[in-house]
C-alpha cells in the first residue's frame, strides 16, 4: 500500500509540474506576442519626388530602432531619433518649453523686422533663457552616520518629444502648432500605449522614384515592425498647422504682425492628422469654371483603427466659400473607398467668392489624412 501511495503521489506531482510548465510556456508565448514592435501611424505618410523630408512613425516597442526598410527603389530612409511621447505635466519642464518657444519666436520676429510681444521682451530683460537649469532644492549636505543622504539636485531638460526636434529652425506657424499640440487642454491626455512611442525618420526620395504606394518597416531589437503605407507622389506637399478648426489661417495669439499665410496653389497634397470632433481647414484659390478634384486618403493609409467605432476612419470632405457657405459635401460610403469631390465652380466673377474657398476634413478618430487637390479629371489623379 505504501508503495502504491508513493507511486500515486509521484504521478500527481509530475502531472502538476507538467501543467505548471505548460502554463509558463503559454505565458511566455503571450508575453512574446505582446512585445512585438508595432507601427500605428506615419506622419506624413508620403512625400514628393526629389525631396528630403522627416516623418514620424508612432507605435509601440520601438526603442532601439536601428534601421528603416522601404520597398521598391529610389527611396532611402534612416533613423534620426527615438522619442517616447509623454504629456508635459511637470511644471519646470512646461516652463522650459514655453521659454524655448518664446526664444525661437523672438528670433523669427527679429528676422521679419517685427517688434516682439511685451511679455517676451520682459522675460528677456529679466534674463530668462531657455537653457536647462537645476530645480531649486536645499544644498546637499554630508549625511551623518545613520542618516539618509540628502536628495541630489536634478537637472530639468527639454522633453524628448518628436515635435521639439530641430526646434531652433521652426517657423512662427510651426511654433504655434507645437504650442497648440503640447498645451491645448483638449490634447492634454496621455496617448494610447499603442502609439506612445515614436521614431523620427529622414526619408530621401529620388527625383526619378516611381510614384505609388510603398511599404515601410522599422528594424528594432524585437525584430521588424508591421508594414505601413508610404506614398511617393509627384505633387508638392504641405503639412497642416494647428490651430485651424474655425479658420484655415487664423490670427495667432501672442504673435501679432505675422504676415497672413497665402492661399495654397494647386495642385497640392495636404498632409494632416485629426482628432475626434476635429476640423482641419485649408484655403486655396479657384476661378470660375475650374474643375476641382479633392480626394481624401484615410482608410487607404490605415485601413483599421483598433480604438475606433466602427473600426475605421470615417472622413467627411466639404467645400466652402470664403463666407462659410457649403458648396458641396461628400462623406464616405459604408464599406467603400475614401471620399472624393469633383466640383466645377459655378459663380460669377474672376475668382470664387473673392478668390478663396475652404476644404474641411472632419468627424473622425485619430488617424492620418492626405488630401489631394488638383485641377482636372479625377481619373488622372486616382490611377
TrEMBL record:
Location in the cell: Cytoplasm
Residue intervals passing through the bilayer: none
Presence of the UniProt keyword Ribonucleoprotein in the record: no
Catalyzed chemical reaction(s): a fatty acyl-[ACP] + phosphate = an acyl phosphate + holo-[ACP]
A Gene Ontology cellular-component term: cytoplasm
EC number: 2.3.1.274
The keyword Transferase belongs to this UniProt entry's keyword annotation: yes
Keyword line: Cytoplasm, Lipid biosynthesis, Lipid metabolism, Phospholipid biosynthesis, Phospholipid metabolism, Transferase
GO BP, sorted A to Z: fatty acid biosynthetic process; phospholipid biosynthetic process
Pfam hit, one: FA_synthesis
Region (Disordered): 112-152
Recorded GO MF terms: phosphate:acyl-[acyl carrier protein] acyltransferase activity
Composition-biased stretches (Basic and acidic residues): 136-150
InterPro entries membership: FA_synthesis, Phospholipid_synth_PlsX-like
Top EC class, one word: transferase
Coiled-coil residues: none
Annotated Gene3D superfamilies: Isopropylmalate Dehydrogenase
Assembly: Homodimer. Probably interacts with PlsY.
Protein name (database record): phosphate acyltransferase
Organismal lineage: unclassified sequences, metagenomes, ecological metagenomes
Amino acid at each position: 500500500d505504501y508503495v502504491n501511495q508513493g507511486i500515486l503521489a509521484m504521478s500527481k506531482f509530475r502531472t502538476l509540474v507538467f501543467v505548471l510548465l505548460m502554463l509558463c510556456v503559454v505565458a511566455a508565448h503571450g508575453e512574446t506576442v505582446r512585445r512585438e514592435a508595432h507601427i500605428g501611424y506615419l506622419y506624413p505618410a508620403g512625400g514628393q519626388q526629389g525631396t528630403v523630408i522627416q516623418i514620424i512613425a508612432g507605435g509601440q516597442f520601438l526603442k532601439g530602432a536601428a534601421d528603416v526598410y522601404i520597398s521598391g527603389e529610389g527611396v532611402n530612409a534612416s533613423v534620426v531619433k527615438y522619442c517616447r511621447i509623454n504629456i508635459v505635466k511637470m511644471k519646470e519642464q512646461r516652463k522650459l518649453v514655453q521659454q524655448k518657444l518664446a526664444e525661437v519666436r523672438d528670433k523669427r520676429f527679429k528676422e521679419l523686422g517685427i517688434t516682439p510681444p511685451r511679455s517676451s521682451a520682459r522675460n528677456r530683460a529679466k534674463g530668462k533663457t531657455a537653457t536647462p537649469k537645476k530645480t531649486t532644492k536645499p544644498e546637499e549636505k554630508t549625511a551623518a552616520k545613520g542618516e539618509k543622504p540628502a536628495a541630489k539636485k536634478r537637472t530639468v531638460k527639454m522633453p524628448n518629444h518628436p515635435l521639439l526636434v530641430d526646434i531652433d529652425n521652426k517657423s512662427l506657424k510651426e511654433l504655434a502648432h507645437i504650442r497648440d499640440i503640447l498645451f491645448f487642454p483638449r490634447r492634454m491626455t496621455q496617448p494610447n500605449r499603442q502609439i506612445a512611442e515614436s521614431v523620427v525618420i529622414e526619408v530621401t526620395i529620388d527625383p526619378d522614384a516611381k510614384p505609388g504606394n510603398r511599404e515601410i518597416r522599422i528594424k528594432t531589437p524585437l525584430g521588424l515592425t508591421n508594414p505601413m503605407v508610404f506614398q511617393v507622389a509627384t505633387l508638392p506637399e504641405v503639412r497642416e498647422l494647428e490651430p485651424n478648426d474655425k479658420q484655415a489661417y487664423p490670427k495667432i495669439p501672442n504673435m501679432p504682425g505675422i504676415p497672413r499665410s497665402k492661399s495654397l496653389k494647386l495642385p497640392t497634397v495636404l498632409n494632416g492628422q485629426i482628432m475626434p470632433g476635429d476640423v482641419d481647414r485649408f484655403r486655396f484659390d479657384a476661378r470660375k469654371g475650374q474643375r476641382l478634384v479633392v480626394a481624401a486618403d484615410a482608410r487607404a493609409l490605415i485601413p483599421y483603427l483598433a480604438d475606433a467605432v466602427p473600426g475605421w476612419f470615417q472622413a467627411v470632405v466639404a467645400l466652402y466659400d470664403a463666407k462659410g457657405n457649403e458648396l458641396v459635401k461628400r462623406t464616405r460610403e459604408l464599406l467603400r473607398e475614401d471620399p472624393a469631390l469633383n466640383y466645377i465652380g459655378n459663380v460669377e466673377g474672376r475668382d470664387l467668392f473673392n478668390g478663396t474657398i475652404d476644404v474641411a476634413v472632419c468627424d473622425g478618430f485619430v488617424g492620418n489624412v492626405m488630401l489631394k487637390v488638383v485641377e482636372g479629371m479625377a481619373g488622372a489623379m486616382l490611377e
